[in-house]
From TrEMBL:
Belongs to the binding-protein-dependent transport system permease family. CysTW subfamily. It is found in: Cell membrane. It is a multi-pass membrane protein. This is ABC transporter permease. Keywords: Cell membrane, Membrane, Transmembrane, Transmembrane helix, Transport. Its main location: membrane. Pfam families: BPD_transp_1.
Length: 214
């Protein structure tokens, strides 16, 4: 029974980690832009701020199962197929990117405005403030946000199994639902729970160490 779990577990890890990296590359700069383009921020720009905020809000509004269906042509174009583990990375990445953008924006807002003003008074440029002040100061919060994103992606990847995405969700559906093997379905759920707990504990530990070493 445990040998059946190995490949689905690896597929889930592959989907989650790959989509998290891609979503981070997309969502992180968007979150920074939303923050710095706000009123009275480093680079106030109402048009850019409103446009990006609207795009992020629309992206977060789609239920993931619908998003997978809507983006199946894009998955087919990018990957060559709309079914399978690799194809699921496309909608997973796009679903997580707006979430990361909001996490980055919220984390940067937690940084004391006094630190930013002090950096400006010393002649720091906007880019230097972003890279050397905002991101380092917000890093513990960003780590916790990415931990939450990874956990959400695990849940999304399980839903991806419902339409042929592979992973532990697909295993639970194929054996637990279609073949009435509830023991495998329960074991799949237990593995998902352990995976979530492990990521949460690791994320909390990293964030705590960053706060302690300041």
């Amino acid at each position: 029974m445990f040998s059946i779990l190995i490949n689905p577990l690896l597929e889930t890890l592959y989907m989650v980690l790959s989509s998290a990296i891609i979503a981070l590359l997309i969502g992180f700069p968007i979150g920074v832009l939303i923050y710095i383009s706000e009123k009275d921020s480093l680079w106030e720009n109402k048009i850019i701020n409103n446009s990006l905020s609207t795009i992020v809000n629309i992206g977060r509004s789609f239920p993931f199962i619908i998003l997978m269906i809507v983006l199946s042509p894009l998955s087919r174009y990018v990957i060559g197929t709309s079914i399978g583990t690799s194809a699921s990375i496309v909608p997973l990445s796009i679903a997580a990117a707006p979430f990361i953008a909001r996490i980055v924006e919220s984390s940067l807002k937690e940084v004391s405005h006094g630190i930013i003003e002090a950096s400006l008074s010393m002649g720091a440029t906007n880019l230097q403030i972003i890279l050397r002040v905002l991101i380092p100061e917000a890093l513990p919060s960003l780590i916790l946000g990415m931990t939450l994103t990874l956990i959400n992606l695990i849940g999304y990847s399980a839903m991806a199994g419902a339409i042929g995405g592979g992973g532990l969700g697909d295993l639970a559906i194929r054996y637990g639902f279609y073949r009435f093997q509830s023991d495998i379905m329960i074991l799949s759920v237990v593995v998902i729970i352990l995976l979530v707990q492990g990521i949460q504990v690791l994320g909390n530990k990293i964030a705590f160490n960053l706060l302690k070493n300041r």
